[in-house]
Write a structure and sequence with these properties.
Length: about 150
């Protein structure tokens, strides 16, 4: 199935899920009310907020001081590209998984809180999943392994 445009991608990703309305969020406060999707990494379940719009992706996990142990944020881009992330205004240490369309983890990057150092995908991807730093290593998940869930179904 080929999806065209951000609207079609949003429908495909989120249609099977109950979606809470997004509250107005400014850059000063953390995003907490984004739609969520359930992903799996092997036997491990991930509760991921979904950042679909440019504004949602720009804010990401900025100013978040807490994150449940298996909670993360899935950044969804309209087209594959080399995605680069930094941790400006983000106090939580995170690991970014750069993920191909089929859910394969291309590469992982551990990121330092409050840093403007960039971390980029090794090749063009449409998805980036941020989790607590070390979550992937703790669960034995590395580059080449696949995530499962609605965003990666063909």
């Amino acid at each position: 199935m080929r999806l065209v445009g951000l609207a079609a991608l949003a429908v495909a990703l989120l249609a099977p899920f109950s979606i809470r309305a997004q509250s107005s969020t400014s850059a000063e406060g953390p995003q907490r009310d984004l739609p969520r999707v359930r992903l799996t990494a092997g036997i491990h379940v991930i509760d991921a907020q979904v950042a679909l719009t440019e504004e949602q992706r720009r804010i990401g996990l900025m100013n978040r001081r807490d994150l449940a142990p298996s909670e993360g944020m899935l950044f969804v881009f309209e087209q594959p590209g080399v995605q680069c992330f930094w941790m400006k205004n983000t106090p939580l240490p995170l690991t970014a998984a750069f993920v191909a369309d089929d859910g394969t983890i291309v590469n992982l990057a551990d990121m330092q809180p409050m840093s403007t150092q960039t971390h980029c995908s090794a090749r063009p991807v449409r998805f980036v999943l941020e989790m607590h730093r070390g979550w992937f290593a703790k669960h034995g998940i590395s580059a080449g392994q696949r995530l499962r869930g609605v965003p990666f179904e063909q």
